[in-house]
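Need a sequence for this fold. Nothing fancy.
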């Protein structure tokens, strides 16, 4: 009775919505994350081996050694992902949606070729070498295929987009011609007020691993709770107005290759990676295709800094006096330099420091010298440039599909949340 009276005496307030007493004594394990990483989900067992093999898939993409604390957080996140995956497979089976072994094998072979450049036999050996297994990756593939088919049958038919909506969007798109749009990668982690501190700590750990060289795509596939996890967190091309206000403000300030987060948003936290940016319905100069001549000099071992500086200055003077691409071969020979012709080179494939420099060149002009004594000094001469035609933007059907996909993604999150709420899960 005293305990009941204490709870009743604490009326819910804005900062205490559950009306809990200020002093709480837990009558059990105070750290729910410290337990054996196994679970039984509606009767299906997830073993410690399942967790370890899936963890190995994540850590294989990261050359950095994880601390014991980070490894524990990773295991708990992977366990949550495996629970969601199990629920998705179970729901697909309950709805009589079949994913055959042949389909899984076909996708597995494609993953081996595209992501690892290996034959299936080499892929099997690689997975075993890193502490994972073919079965672990194939189960993940089965889960993705099952969930995609379930959404196509049970969610997609009930998502409708009117022609008026699409036409309005096309008009807004035309009105925004010339403004910036961004290709964004996102890792989304859901959080409640009670779990936010723990989730934020986990998100910061993910950011640290990514900053140390971890694969964003691999971490998004394993950690992100958004439907874009299956495609490595890629949101595609979006404009700031299409994003939640908190994310739009951050993305507008980012540069390609930049990682930011965690960013608080309603319902959780997001880690953002800017893959690229461009102007809406405007031809991107970085899509231009170039014909280049690469003129370079190398240095003998033992060359002093003074000798190198003198030769670089002489080389820079010499290449600045070349009379166009037709004179490049003879001029290079006179300078003791080698020359290589490179055709069909997109500007965006060059290092970012060179992109701006080469876009300022006219035919026959060269970039400033770059490189080092160890790797050699070189310049690029522009000998041809084909600019991409101005984009007409997405057509009616493409834009309708994009809007449908966004709505399907939101309903998919609610669908999975309902499956979690109805599930019987036992932890061991």
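Here you go.
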């Amino acid at each position: 009775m005293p305990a009941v009276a204490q709870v009743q005496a604490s009326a819910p307030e804005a900062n205490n919505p559950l009306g809990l007493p200020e002093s709480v004594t837990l009558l059990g394990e105070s750290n729910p994350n410290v337990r054996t990483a196994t679970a039984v989900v509606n009767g299906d067992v997830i073993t410690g081996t399942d967790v370890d093999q899936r963890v190995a898939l994540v850590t294989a993409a990261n050359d950095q050694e994880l601390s014991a604390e980070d490894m524990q957080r990773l295991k708990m996140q992977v366990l949550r992902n495996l629970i969601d995956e199990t629920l998705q497979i179970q729901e697909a089976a309950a709805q009589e949606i079949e994913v055959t072994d042949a389909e899984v094998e076909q996708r597995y072979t494609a993953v081996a070729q595209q992501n690892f450049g290996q034959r299936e036999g080499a892929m099997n050996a690689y997975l075993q070498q890193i502490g994972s297994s073919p079965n672990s990756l194939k189960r993940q593939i089965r889960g993705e295929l099952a969930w995609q088919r379930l959404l196509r049958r049970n969610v997609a038919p009930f998502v409708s987009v009117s022609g008026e909506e699409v036409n309005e969007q096309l008009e807004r798109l035309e009105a925004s011609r010339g403004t910036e749009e961004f290709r964004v990668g996102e890792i989304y982690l859901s959080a409640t007020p009670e779990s936010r501190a723990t989730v934020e700590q986990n998100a910061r750990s993910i950011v640290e691993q990514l900053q140390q060289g971890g694969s964003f795509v691999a971490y998004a596939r394993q950690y992100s709770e958004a439907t874009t996890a299956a495609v490595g967190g890629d949101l595609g091309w979006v404009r700031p107005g299409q994003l939640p206000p908190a994310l739009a403000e951050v993305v507008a300030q980012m540069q390609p290759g930049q990682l930011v987060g965690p960013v608080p948003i309603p319902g959780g936290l997001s880690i953002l990676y800017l893959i690229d940016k461009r102007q809406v319905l405007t031809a991107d100069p970085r899509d231009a295709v170039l014909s280049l001549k690469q003129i370079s000099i190398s240095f003998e071992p033992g060359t002093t800094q003074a000798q190198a500086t003198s030769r670089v200055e002489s080389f820079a003077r010499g290449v600045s006096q070349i009379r166009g691409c037709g004179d490049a071969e003879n001029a290079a020979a006179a300078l003791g330099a080698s020359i290589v012709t490179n055709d069909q080179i997109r500007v965006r494939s060059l290092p970012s420091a060179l992109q701006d420099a080469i876009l300022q060149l006219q035919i026959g002009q060269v970039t400033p010298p770059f490189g080092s004594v160890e790797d050699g000094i070189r310049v690029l001469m522009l000998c041809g440039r084909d600019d991409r035609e101005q984009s007409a933007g997405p057509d009616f059907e493409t834009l309708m599909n994009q809007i449908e996909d966004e709505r399907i993604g939101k309903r998919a999150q609610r669908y999975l949340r309902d499956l979690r709420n109805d599930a019987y899960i036992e932890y061991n």
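For context: Confidence is low (pLDDT under 50) at residues 1-15.
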